Request: fold
Amino acid sequence: MASLIRTLYKYSRNSMTSSYRTISNTANHEQTILADRESSMKDDLPINFENNPFEKKKESCILCRYNIVPDYKNVRLLSQFQSSYTGRIYGRHITGLCKAKQEMVEREILKAQNCGFMPVYHKNPNYLRDPKLFDPDHPFRPHKY
Ligand SMILES: [Zn+2]
Reply:
């Protein structure tokens, strides 16, 4: 009888300690889970960039880049936008200029031609060896027609 009581007591004590252990284990486990969740939430927070990292570089045409204002007296510059075979003013898809500068160049070329500074049907032969700003055979954009 006494031995039975002792075993019962031992059993109950074992079960109590084991149950206590399991409770403490789950508590620890929950704590670790919470800590993990907190850290992961911190990792998932959005990073604040000062500037937009996906911002595209602002493209500027060659005249805007060097801050050049075309002038009817600067015939050498204007001749670079003229075909050496026909004297035609190259279009914007070839020159790659922005609309404002292209219109300015065309206006100044007409002014220079009307003043007699620039030939109309060919390029001035003195400027034929000038460096090319663009390749008319490989335009920046395809022609719209
Ligand atoms: Zn421009």
Notes: The domain at 62-127 is CATH 4.10.640.10 (30s Ribosomal Protein S18). Residues 76 and 127 are 7 Å apart (CA to CA).
